[in-house]
Write the structure tokens for this entry.
Amino acid sequence: QGQLVESGGGLVQPGGSLRLSCAASGFTFSSYAMRWYRQAPGKERELVAHFSSAGGSTNYADSVKGRFTISRDNAKNTVYLQMNSLKPEDTAVYYCNAGGLLGYWGQGTQVTVSS
């Protein structure tokens, strides 16, 4: 059974940076597109970034373009989300996903941006 485990969340001041990691196991990681979602209190879950399984293409939500970078290391079965210039509105629980809405989900990691 596939499993995703996120890490790297925490409290950071506005303008700061965090790097989230998501370690995968139990499935062929390199065959799956990987995504980061986030959900803020009282809001719907939104797609933040996507990394294709082949070709290496990436896509980002408009709200994070130029600030966030998704990357993956297939040798380590890990996907990353580098978050720079963080804003209070980036505060949310961040989830990694493999295989779309009906695929594998991690447990989430809290990111809080506050002074």
About this structure: The chain has a mean pLDDT of 96.
